[in-house]
Amino acid sequence: MSRVRTRELSFELRAGETLLEGLERTGHAVEYQCRSGYCGSCRTALLAGRVAYHEAPLAYLAEGEILPCCCRPTEPVSLDIPLLEIKKQA
């Protein structure tokens, strides 16, 4: 398991969970279309740490960018991703 730090939260990924799955589970705002590394719509900046891909993604990645849809952290990572707004219940 790996520790993930975002703007407002720090959490552990579950066994076998991709970064995207962990971000969704914890209520983060991350866009995606494919979940397999070819469209690039979930592209985000990796502020710290390292990730690995089971298969090399087909989408273009600039230095310091990752695709959460198909990567898994190999060490603690830090991302600039916000939580979704949660409406307060009265």
TrEMBL record:
GO molecular function: 2 iron, 2 sulfur cluster binding
InterPro entries registered for this protein in UniProt: 2Fe-2S_ferredoxin-like_sf, 2Fe-2S_ferredoxin-type, 2Fe2S_fd_BS, Benzoxazolinone_Detox_Enz, Beta-grasp_dom_sf
Any Pfam family: Fer2
Domain of life: Bacteria
Protein name: Ferredoxin
Source organism (scientific name): Zobellella denitrificans
Organism taxonomic ancestry: Bacteria, Pseudomonadati, Pseudomonadota, Gammaproteobacteria, Aeromonadales
